């Protein structure tokens, strides 16, 4: 119910003229076209972990050596100014209307539209009950609704354990803390058999959360898994 109200409110707010949150141009969308053009230029990235790569290189050395459980990983931008500030505002400062900005940014990213069209299910990264109560909404769910409202399913992939904020942990600690943190609703497993799935999240750092979620989906029968994230740390 609360998520639905936030969705409606953010759609209304997005249609109103406003000041660009980056350059302060007025009137403009929350992020004006000039700032998107300046700060969101396409960049070659590893096809399975989204780290930046030179032209014509498809996979980074780490993914070649140890392939991740994702078939594809697409990131719109680097986690840097101005997107890092906007994502913090989105998640922690009561600005859910930015979901529309991020959805448009992702849809403009090469290969995102085909991934969404081919997917049977679009799954937001789930929050634990404790984190959801603290934040008040799931930022990945709002973004998924903007990207593919008819395919978004927020009840199939579950977060069954609360874990420390991943930004406070090293990679090995993240992987350990996330073990058994995700599950698939046992009554919904049939929906994943042979399915193409998209997982939506806001930021990818080490990839630990996305990889653990993807492993759970793969074990439940998903045939192809793509991760979509707004920003990738580099």
Q: How is this structure best described in words?
A:
There is one protein chain. The chain is 38% helix and 15% strand. The strands form 2 sheets. The chain has a 4-stranded parallel beta sheet with strand order 1-6-5-2, with helices on both faces. A two-stranded antiparallel ribbon has the order 3-4. It has 234 residues and is of the alpha/beta class. It contains 10 helices and 6 strands, in the order αααβαααβααβαββαβ.
Largest sheet geometry: 4 strands, parallel
Rough shape? globular
Unreliable segments (pLDDT under 50, ≥5 consecutive)? Answer: 1-14
| Strands ordered across the widest β-sheet | 1-6-5-2
Q: Helix fraction? A: 25-40%
In round numbers, the mean pLDDT is 89
Report how far the terminal alpha carbons are from each other.
36 Å
Kindly name the structural category.
alpha/beta
Radius of gyration, in angstroms, nearest whole number: 17 Å
**Quantity of strands, as a count:** 6
- Helical element count? 10
SSE series: HHHEHHHEHHEHEEHE
Strand content: 5-15%
Name the assembly state: single chain
Question: Which characteristics define this entry?
Answer:
single chain, 234 residues, alpha/beta, four-stranded parallel sheet, two-stranded antiparallel sheet, 15% strand, globular, disordered N terminus
